[in-house]
Amino acid sequence: MKAFIAFLLFALVLVPGCAKKPNLQELQQLEEQKREIDAQEKKLKELQAEREKFEALLETKKAELKKLEMEKDSLKTRLGK
Q: What are the distances in angstroms from CA 18 to CA 13, 15, 26, 50, 58?
């Protein structure tokens, strides 16, 4: 029984050391993927900022349209009388 426990302890220490380590090519691929992710995240932030700008412009234009429609209705009412 003691021998079995000693074997298990030895195996637990030895097994993690046997894990395959990434080679240079895999590390380079990982770095390239990280750079690509960073670039895509930057582009996403730029596009989100642009979208917010256009949404604000849209709201401004909607308010302007509403104002002009009210003015148009007012003019129609005055000309109709």
A: 10, 5, 18, 50, 60
- Give the integer Cα–Cα distance in Å for 33 and 39: 10
d(CA 14, CA 7): 10
The model's pLDDT over 6-59, given as tens digits with 9 standing for 90+, comes to 666 666 655 555 567 889 899 999 999 999 999 999 999 999 999 999 999 999
Domain that holds residue 69: 30-81
Residue 10 inside a domain? The answer is: no
Is 22 in contact with 30 (CB distance < 8 Å)? yes
